[in-house]
Amino acid sequence: MKLGKVEFCHFLQIIALFLCLSGMNQAELSKSRSKPYFQSGRTRTKRSWVWNQFFVLEEYMGTDPLYVGKLHSDVDKGDGSIKYILSGEGASSIFIIDENTGDIHATKRLDREEQAYYTLRAQALDRLTNKPVEPESEFVIKIQDINDNEPKFLDGPYTAGVPEMSPVGTSVVQVTATDADDPTYGNSARVVYSILQGQPYFSVEPKTGIIKTALPNMDREAKDQYLLVIQAKDMVGQNGGLSGTTSVTVTLTDVNDNPPRFPRRSYQYNVPESLPVASVVARIKAADADVGPNAEMEYKIVDGDGLGVFKISVDKDTQEGIITIQKELDFEAKTSYTLRIEAANMHVDPRFLSLGPFSDMTTVKIIVEDVDEPPVFTSRLYSMVVSEAAKVGTIIGTVAAHDPDASNSPVRYSIDRNTDLERYFNIDANSGVITTAKSLDRETNAVHNITVLAMESQNPAQIGRGYVAITILDINDNAPEFATEYETTVCENAQPGQVIQKISAIDKDDPPNGHQFYFSLTAEAANNHNFTLQDNKDNTATVLTRRNGFRRQEQSVFYLPIFIVDSGSPSLSSTNTLTIRVCDCDADGIAQTCNAEAYILPAGLSTGALIAILACVLTLLVLVLLIVTMRRRKKEPLIFDEERDIRENIVRYDDEGGGEEDTEAFDMAALRNLNIIRDTKTRRDVTPEIQFLSRPTFKSIPDNVIFREFIWERLKEADVDPCAPPYDSLQTYAFEGNGSVAESLSSLDSISSNSDQNYDYLSDWGPRFKRLADMYGTGPDCLYS
């Protein structure tokens, strides 16, 4: 008959209880005193504790307290005079004692995995006096283990890897299960391992838990992952034992056991001849079932007629072979190329050489397609030179370009004006001859970099570019001059032969052998008695004094003309004036004051006089400010009394009459005078003749007719006016009607009036009134003289 887990546990408990009751595990603990104990004239002999050995089964499931053992003292005569007490771990809460008999019971279910033993203390007391009759004794209650814990994989689930194609017995990983039961008691904690899932590929050692491969030549490319289920069972795997399981994921890692292979034996690609250098022509890839480093490969061109024209490299990410151009393609020179390309693994495993070879070959044919190419110059850069003295139209050089296509279309040339903004150069559209278009100046621009465009006559969109560097050759066209503006001073106490200035010169020209300047005084300054010039022969000159005793009050500034000649061919010269100021110097010869007025002023005025003048000026300024302030206060308006009505200050004036709309106050007919003066428009390029214009008189007619006549006259004048614009324009006039009956009162019309006023007396008033006499005099010789 097979026992279940619970029945088996109860069976073990019954056997343990039987052993305890039969006295097989009975032990005696003796506690002795060093001296005999005397009481009431009698000698007390040594006493000792006596009890059964205490073992308790864990996981007791009964309803009554579990008997543990019995305490007994030899002093106890069985008359009830002795009582037993218990203290220590679990006393009263887990373990109780019968104070009369000394029997110990466990009141709770015990678990050895929580606590394996309990340490307690027992004591026998006299019931009447409550005094100990025996010394306190310590004892241990041990919990006996039963198989109540299954094995557990604390580190599961597991993951592991093993190389593919590994031999049988290759270790993969070790699994470990732990059992909380007592390993020193029975087989409750003795575990054995078995594999529930994963055969026939893997196996596990029963005692160690090491998982190993069970089949040879497992191929990752066929299946790369396996899931195993491992069981651990206690009681040495016997029936009734408890078990636990875990999963183990085993991944086959890659090895280089697959050589690369091209999917095709040949490839063909078409590329235009205009494809730039370094452009990608094609991508090819050899298939390799391996991954990672085992799939890394290299490509190389081993044969063919495009070895120098193309190259192949590998893309590290995709392991593709990238074919690129190394040289420019030319359809007219070669129309196709053939390449033999090899792909090989970089990391070959010697164990699998028998599966090789680990390389493969393919053929790549590249067809070059013809495209309409722009003209090509015979040189990428043309270098030309021209003198800056060259006249306009001088030939500098020639560029040449041709159409590389089979059609060989004619080429026309032009200059990219973005590179020649000032238009210094021209180019012949047919011949490519470059000439000067303006005068050149090397000092402004020594080198001109221009771009020449070559266009196909049949297809102007095809434009080639050539680059021309034109160097301007120097000529001696700039005279030398002072290197800087010199501030030269001479001390009043200077001695003859004293150096007061060292000068140098510059020249914008750039002679091939460098500059050489010659310095001298001009002819009119050569015999002056104040200064002389010494040429140092190193493109510098020294100015020296000829006398002493310079005085600012006599002459504060001297002007010394210096003649400078360069060494060009032909040589150029210039006269530069050196300004020398006479200064008052200290003992070290350092100029202090160079102003002549500063020298004269202290001789006439003392410090006290200057202070007095300043005080007077300040006093006058204060007075002026006071006067201005007082005047501003007088001009301030009076403040009106708040109680007064401001309307009392309004000044009323009489009405002088109605306006233009007031027809009752005035007779409008009396204001109409149609006599107006019209100036005839004359041409500005013809001198007008002097003539008197009479006033045409209009009859008194209605207003609308007046305005119509006025507009008609202005229209005719505008038609014959030579200064009028040659298009329709808006003519604006301010005409309000005819003039007054009294005509004009202005003196400007007096010259043409019939007034009897005589202005001849103006001639007698002197030259100041001569102009008026000429304007208003009656003599014909005085008119517009």
Describe the structure.
This is Cadherin-7. Cadherins are calcium-dependent cell adhesion proteins. This protein is mainly β. Among the domains are: about 55-145, Cadherins (Immunoglobulin-like, Sandwich), CATH 2.60.40; about 150-255, Cadherins (Immunoglobulin-like), CATH 2.60.40.60; about 265-370, Immunoglobulin-like (Sandwich), CATH 2.60.40; about 375-475, Immunoglobulin-like (Sandwich); about 480-595, Sandwich (Immunoglobulin-like). It contains five helices and 43 strands. The strands form twelve sheets. Strands 1-4-6-9-8 form a five-stranded antiparallel sheet, with no helix packed on it. Strand 15 and strand 16 (about 210-215) form a beta hairpin. It is elongated. The N and C termini lie far apart (about 165 Å). Mean pLDDT is about 80; it is low at about 1-5, about 15-45, about 600-605, about 640-650, about 670-700 and about 780-785.
Distance between the termini: 166 Å
Structural class category: mainly beta
**Helix content estimate:** 10-25%
Radius of gyration computed on alpha carbons: 67 Å
Please outline the major beta sheet: 5 strands, antiparallel
Q: Summarize model confidence as the mean pLDDT.
A: 79
Q: What is the CATH topology assignment of one domain? A: Immunoglobulin-like
Under the CATH scheme, which architecture of one domain would be assigned? Sandwich
CATH superfamily descriptor of one domain: Cadherins
Based on Cα principal axes, name the global outline: elongated
The low-confidence runs, each spanning 5 or more residues with pLDDT under 50, are 1-7, 16-47, 598-603, 638-648, 670-700, 780-785
Strand content: 25-35%
GO cellular component, one term: catenin complex
InterPro entries: Cadherin, Cadherin-like_dom, Cadherin-like_sf, Cadherin_CS, Cadherin_Y-type_LIR, Catenin-bd_sf
Subcellular location: Cell membrane
Organism: Struthio camelus australis
